[in-house]
Specification:
The chain is of the alpha+beta class. It has 17 helices and 35 strands. The strands form eleven sheets. It has a five-stranded antiparallel β-sheet, with no helix packed on it. Strand 17 and strand 18 form a beta hairpin. The two termini are 43 Å apart.
């Protein structure tokens, strides 16, 4: 069916606006059989229903795009204005009256009218199926948590025995998407808004992340043994006598990767062993369906929502020390230049020698006598691993991989989930070398799967859009560090060379973040089209099957096609179709998980700043818009200074220079500038921090990196709020790296 669709689109594209009538299209496609013609007409009707094809004024078929119909995602802001982004073209604006029943994030078909404005003609899929709300007021009425939905009139259906109480948070199913009224049915009472943990649980549920596993999964888990039998080890390479270690964070409980290394000649033999989750989570099982639905584990401020139940993620699938575990091992020969000279992937059984932490390994690498003595039985494993990983990283840097090195916040909360500090997360040599080993394994396995030409899910990162690069070139020039790009194809090395030249410049943090925002988001795809950010032609995710569904699928395909050598054409075709579905679903769920992470972080940062209202801080202007500018503090907390709160002058936004300029004083607020701000107020529910420009004579806070020590000065400024949720830029942490868990 997809093949016929593509042939129809190609044929109509060749004939442009002139189009083809049904008979001419039949001849163009070379259809002579009656059943094939009936199938073509059926597909045409379906495509017409979604405006993929339409009839022109002569009644001939033409592609919908020729007639101004586009399919994509609509974004709706808190004021009700809609926006439809197009690659390398201007964003299309859609007024509220032209949005039909579309909500923020929905996949829609729009028609571009005169003046470049658009109108929604059909909603294909709704991003919101369930919503979270809070009952407010003395006579409680439901207010939706999502600020972008608060302008909608609501019709709330509830069971007869349900009594709303002020402060109660509920989850609702959307039963009807009206243009003016949303009809909701209450399906769950989450708790009360001030109860510990309810705030984060509400965000998780709002992103369709369910902490509890269904009964059929719990029942299935009961029948999975918690130890490895001799029978299960048959046919596997026995690595149990080798020194193999896991290296993770202090609080980690699920260990899905372990490493072993030894010197050989002028290089190393590196073995990256990954938990064989596919042995326990079989295709079509309740566990598999739940893992597919979740897509990944979600790590928020004070909890983890795992992709798999703890009996697997912390139990039989976790590479815990001193117990036998089933694995898939990627064995690589690495030369002294960091090149992978050869690789083999095989099913194995390991017995982890030690559960190591980043902290302790960093101490060993720094020569700490006590720690070196404690792990003396592991010989030179850690220094060999460091040298091997450093060679891998050096090779990647030479190749042009981009390292943005953006700061990441660690939000510390008490037993009730109340934040008491926000500091920068520290990354030492141990963290980097494990990341290097995992990236090397991901590349090696991707190369193996591509060479074998078998169905697989790859991790891809496409070349940045031209319009975003042009925006960055303009911004970099404003900041005095123009980014000059070759006129031919874009190469990641150009970006990395540029960043390397800015390391010691005060504008580096802003330019690094701005450049990161030019990048496309990495995603999953059945085609191996390469990874721009890592400068790799082949890349996938193999190293975390406990917490990522695509990794689990890679392991499953490895067994089926590499180990067992399946050549059945019908199986290959079936799996190729599945890879398309798995890639799309995994990308969707990854975005939901990331959004939940960011929303929880924003909320906790806003809650943390409640105690600093009226205090003064020094920050950097990280973004400038027509309605104000964003200021980021050294610990990554970001707030907005609204245009309406700049009372000393009338300010005009200059988009080309990314600045606001006063018409009388000529005072300028430009991206990258250091400014003193007062915390004017916070809105925890919206994850929002409000700043105002401070009196220049007032001393700024001294935020000591990593210490959380705020020496503050009080201000009598009034607590002010603003209505707009701060803009979410494409991030950062999961953009293209291996994405090691925190």
């Amino acid at each position: 069916m997809e093949e016929i669709k593509e042939k129809i689109e190609d044929a109509l594209e060749r004939h442009g606006h002139e189009g083809l009538n049904t008979q001419a299209l039949k001849e163009e496609l070379g259809i002579t059989d009656g059943s094939d013609f009936a199938e073509m007409e059926k597909i045409l009707a379906e495509m017409n229903d979604n405006y993929a094809v339409v009839r022109n004024e002569n009644g001939s078929w033409m592609n919908g795009s020729e007639a101004g119909y586009l399919t994509g995602r609509i974004s709706v802001n808190t004021k009700g204005l809609g926006f439809f982004d197009r690659e390398d073209e201007e964003t299309i604006r859609i007024d509220a009256k032209d949005q039909k029943e579309a909500l923020d994030g929905d996949t829609v078909v729009i028609h571009i009218g005169s003046g470049g404005f658009g109108a929604v003609v059909k909603v294909l899929t709704h991003a919101h199926v369930r919503v979270i709300g809070t009952y407010e007021g003395v006579e409680p009425h439901l207010v939706l948590d999502d600020a972008k939905l608060q302008g909608k009139a609501l019709k709330v259906e509830k069971d007869d025995d349900f009594t709303p109480i002020q402060g109660m948070k509920v989850q609702c199913q959307i039963t009807d998407y009206g243009e003016h009224i949303l009809t909701l049915h209450i399906i769950r009472v989450i708790g009360y808004k001030d109860d510990p943990g309810v705030d984060i649980l509400s965000i998780l549920l709002d992103h369709d992340i369910e902490p509890e596993f269904p009964d059929d999964v719990k029942e299935e888990v009961k029948h999975i043994p918690q130890s490895v039998s001799e029978e299960e080890m048959q046919g596997r390479v026995d690595l149990r006598t080798e020194d193999t270690v896991t290296i993770d964070g202090d609080d980690s409980k699920d260990f899905d990767d372990a490493v072993a290394v030894h010197k050989e000649g002028d290089g190393w033999v590196l073995k990256v062993s990954i938990a064989d989750v596919s042995h326990y989570v079989t295709a079509g099982s309740a566990l598999d369906q739940q893992a597919y639905n979740r897509g990944c584990s979600t790590y928020v401020t004070d909890r983890v929502v795992p992709m798999l139940p703890h009996e697997l993620s912390n139990g039989i699938c976790s590479l815990n020390p001193h117990v036998d575990r089933l694995a898939n091992t990627c064995e690589m020969v690495i030369d002294h230049e960091g090149n992978t000279k050869s690789c083999k992937v095989y099913a194995s059984v390991i017995n982890s020698t030690e559960r190591m932490t980043y902290h302790n390994v960093n101490l060993i690498l720094d020569g700490d006598a006590e720690m070196c003595e404690k792990y003396r039985h592991l010989g030179t494993l850690f220094t060999d691993l460091r040298d091997c990983a450093d060679a891998i990283r050096a090779r990647r840097v030479r190749q042009g991989a981009i390292d943005f090195d953006t700061p990441e916040a660690e939000i510390k909360v008490d037993e009730n989930g109340v934040p008491y500090d926000v500091v920068l997360r520290q990354r030492g040599h141990a963290e980097r070398m494990i990341e290097d080993c995992m990236i090397a394994a991901n590349c090696a396995v991707a190369n193996e799967m591509k060479r074998a030409d078998v169905p697989c899910v790859y991790r891809i990162h496409e070349v940045p859009e031209t319009k975003r690069i042009k925006t960055f070139i303009r911004t970099s020039a404003v900041l005095g560090h123009r980014f000059i790009m070759r006129k031919s194809t874009i190469h990641p090395k150009e970006f990395q060379t540029y960043l390397d030249g800015l390391k010691d410049e005060p504008e580096y943090p802003v330019l690094s973040m701005m450049m990161l925002r030019t990048m496309q988001k990495a995603k999953y795809d059945p085609s191996c089209i390469g990874h721009f950010g890592l400068a790799e032609k082949e890349y996938l995710h193999f190293t975390s099957p406990i917490r990522r569904y695509p990794d689990l699928i890679v392991h499953r395909m490895l067994r089926k096609y590499i180990y067992e050598g399946c050549t059945d054409e019908s199986e290959i075709k079936k799996d190729e179709a599945l890879m398309v579905d798995y890639s799309e679903q995994s990308s969707i769920r990854e975005r939901a998980s990331q959004d939940a992470e960011y929303d929880c972080d924003d909320m906790k940062k806003a809650q943390y700043m409640e105690k600093f209202v009226g205090d003064t801080f020094t920050g950097i202007i990280s973004g400038v818009t027509g309605f104000g500018f964003y200021v980021e503090l050294p610990n990554t907390i970001e707030g907005m200074v609204r245009l309406n709160d700049l009372h000393d002058d009338f300010y005009v936004f200059n988009e080309d220079r990314m600045e606001l300029q006063g018409q009388r004083t000529r005072r300028v607020f430009r991206i990258g500038m250091e400014v003193k701000v007062i915390c004017a107020g916070t809105t925890k529910a919206l994850g929002q921090v409000d700043f105002m420009i401070a009196n220049a004579a007032r001393p700024a806070h001294d935020y000591r990196k990593g210490k959380g020590n705020w020496n503050r000065s009080r201000s009598s400024e009034h607590n002010r709020g603003y209505d707009s949720r701060r803009k979410r830029y494409s991030s950062s942490r999961h953009s293209y790296s291996n994405g090691r868990r925190k």
